[in-house]
């Protein structure tokens, strides 16, 4: 008889459950997060086991990779799309594991994309660059605020990030404590800048834009690093059924529920990929600064609403354009976006 397995994964342990083709519960056990132990349990049923479902939690890499290496058919469940039984009085890890297996048996399991193992490390390195950029930005804003409060001037970001010249210390030299605060901030910003440059050098040496993604560079606001981010975070673009699904995955679609022009609630606005959201947000900012038509579109939106909505609208436009460019292998056409 065919068997189906579900694993409810946690930080230190996993709950393994197995059912048969009729939904009868065959086996369940709480196990430590040790791939050898989990594989040994599953191998007891290997002859008839049709698949193993693992929920897409923050720590799924090691388990999915280990199970696939052992020869099991692994399915990555999308937790945002999973529907549980309504009216349940009680639920726990055992129920969750059996429900994962049951969805696989009924062929109603919403599945996530298992990103290729060999490409994940360079993607994580690029994510680390984004993390460092965010840290540096927060420190720059903090330093700008210190200078603004005490000197009444605003220092340009480019001047703060200069590595060969210190334009910060002279501004705060009138007070010993402020000078030390400025020095610590400047040294930290310079350190992060050097680390960011180091990561970029490694990425550019190891990673090249694939042919199907090179045309992203024709989109205003998208440079090499942002294009590489889009390539690594998107993966095969044909896994998205349409441009709306892709824009939603980029977190650029409103999560509000409305009826008769009234808000009736909202969905989970964090559904999707935060790194693609960041990439297109950065692209929108650069496009607004340096592309005339993008800036005109942004200004038209800004006259009707606030700057965040206008910024997101521009990012949404660029994401939709990127989808068609990656799918159809065409260059960016201004008239199709900003008219």
The fraction of residues assigned to DSSP E strands is: 5-15%
Number of strands: 7
N- to C-terminal distance: 60 Å
Structural class based on helices, strands and sheet pairing: alpha/beta
How would you sum up the major sheet? 5 strands, mixed
What is the averaged pLDDT score? Answer: 92
Number of helices: 12
Order of helical and strand elements = EEEHEHEHHHHHHEEHHHH
- Which shape, going by the Cα principal axes? globular
Q: What gyration radius follows from the Cα positions, in whole Å?
A: 25 Å
Spans with pLDDT under 50 lasting ≥5 residues?
none
Would you give an account of this structure?
The protein is an alpha/beta fold and 339 residues long. The protein has helices at residues 35-43, 61-69, 93-106, 120-151, 157-161, 176-206, 224-234, 243-249, 274-290, 292-304, 307-328, 334-338, and strands at residues 3-9, 13-20, 25-32, 49-55, 74-77, 256-259, 262-266. Strands 3-2-1-4-5 form a five-stranded mixed sheet. The protein has a two-stranded antiparallel ribbon with strand order 6-7. The model has no long low-confidence stretch (mean pLDDT 92).
